[in-house]
Amino acid sequence: MELRNLRSLIALVESGFSVSRAAEQLHLVQPAVSQHIRHMEDELGVQLFVRKGKRLTGLTGVGEQVVQYARKALAETHNILDVGRDHVEQSSGVLRVGTTHTQARYVLPPVINAFNKAYPEVELQILQGTPQQLVEMALDDLVDFSICTEDLAEHPLLTAVPCYKWNRSLIALPGHPLLERKRLTLKALCNYPLITYVFGFTGRGHFSDAFAKQGLKPRVVLSASDTDVIKTYVREGMGVGIIASLAYTPKQDRDLVMHDLSKLFPWEITKIAYPKGKYLRRYQQRFIELFQRCVSESGRWAGLLPV
Amino acid sequence: MELRNLRSLIALVESGFSVSRAAEQLHLVQPAVSQHIRHMEDELGVQLFVRKGKRLTGLTGVGEQVVQYARKALAETHNILDVGRDHVEQSSGVLRVGTTHTQARYVLPPVINAFNKAYPEVELQILQGTPQQLVEMALDDLVDFSICTEDLAEHPLLTAVPCYKWNRSLIALPGHPLLERKRLTLKALCNYPLITYVFGFTGRGHFSDAFAKQGLKPRVVLSASDTDVIKTYVREGMGVGIIASLAYTPKQDRDLVMHDLSKLFPWEITKIAYPKGKYLRRYQQRFIELFQRCVSESGRWAGLLPV
DNA sequence: CGTTCTTACGTGTGTCGTAACGATC
DNA sequence: GATCGTTACGACACACGTAAGAACG
Lengths: 307, 307
What we know:
The structure is a homodimer of 307-residue chains.
Chain A: H1 3-14, H2 19-25, H3 30-44, E1 49-52, E2 55-59, H4 61-88, E3 93-99, H5 101-118, E4 122-128, H6 131-139, E5 145-148, E6 158-166, E7 168-172, H7 186-189, E8 194-197, H8 204-213, E9 220-224, H9 227-235, E10 240-244, E11 257-260, E12 268-275, H10 282-298, E13 305-306
Parallel strand pairs in A: 3-4, 3-5, 8-9, 8-10
Antiparallel strand pairs in A: 1-2, 5-12, 6-12, 6-13, 7-10, 7-11
Helix pairs in contact in A: 1-2, 1-3, 1-4, 2-3, 5-10
The structure holds a DNA duplex (25 and 25 nucleotides).
């Protein structure tokens, strides 16, 4: 068995079982990939793919297992290459970060900026996705690591390092009755139409739980995956927004009034996650440190706290 | 990079940095292995080996890291092959067990026997070593798993599954004064010359600790890595033996009197350990189950207990 | 001077690419 | 009939083996 074969195997499953697309991705021709699969199946003496005529439609049970180990094997070879790269040129390369809109828009900018100053030779790529997608992206090595609040810590194949904790704030148009009250309660919030994040995003799970625990049902008239969208509709007068405090920018959001709600909801913890056993290049480690540092230095005004 | 290169790399470090021996082990000629190393170092752009003239004497820092990941990569390819083998012929292959003398001589025989009946096509290999060696053997894939009481559970790269717990017994020639007493104490033991295991073997650590905790110093006149040796010298009248209860065989040891000491010492737990992430073939899993089963069925007379 | 690794060179295996064929939608 | 995969064949690359050379003990 050789790594070629494994590469074809993985490319094949990631291309949705299309031999031609896999070949293209590998800069090879179709027959080459076919041959690789043939060789593996011959060597193992087992069918790895379910076939419908000549077409491949899925993995067999054995195939699933083999793919699992093949992924790991290839990941290790990437680690080896990275170790090498790290010693020839410590400060150049590519850094691929997966994250959510909110992070990319409100938390990352100063970090990215500082990182780029420190490592101008490193090409930065930011990929966005849902928390579930971010998990997949980290596992499939589409990004070097993913940053978000949900789902990362639970996955057994990911190492998740906590970076900071945050909570929510209410935003509303000036003069809104809720803003008059000294002490806000969850119950009070239930009297008004709310706008917040969709399920699976930015702590929406704990948001709903907090209400449920008191037997309350908030009236969420609109939910979005994106803080900017929420703000927009708050400005339209559709309701009051409940957003991550860090997403309130005093300058641009002068027309909205913010009110801290950290007494009402549990704190959320944002983490950086990467596959277990992955070798982190020098500048990747530095990015993580920088991320944590930036938060502890400049984050307090926005309600961010180090873990 | 290809697996060839990694194989040569590992063979090279395992042969003590001798290119010729590495080549021999791989069924290749020296120049081939040299070329592999050359290729890797070229591709990574870094020296992997420390050289003294032409001779290789050790790994560089980078080399150490690369070896670490190369080992994992190769382990994954072995997993793939095993997955395949498991599906073409579930019940034939090789089973390599590393263990200590005591296990091999007193605990394993019935297990081996039962296993051989169940899987006559599987070739069994028992390798012996010290607990430290057993750890290395498991990590370097010289055995499929190691069985012993010490060191296995602590290692971060090994999965250790507990199998049974055991304790010690005293053995002495008939008529020995210690045997007259109803309740033995550690202090009483200190009055007589003792014979037991050497450090690092068969629970010797906890043995000594038990005395130390009470501020006692036992007079160990002889220590051996091997229960049979202990028995021999007990028969010579050199002292009383303290051995794992499971190593007392009523038939052959009729001339020695045994006395249970499980009240005096902590229980020891014997485990089976294999590298984390290793794929276990069907019959390997069965062996572990069989091992645990045999103990719970036939072990009680010998003071063995399921965990 | 033997041992050990490197360099140089030839050969063969094997991988990839081109091209034709077969199957499936 | 267009797309997608397999089979067949040829060319080139490259990995391995042989043989000779250099450095070290």
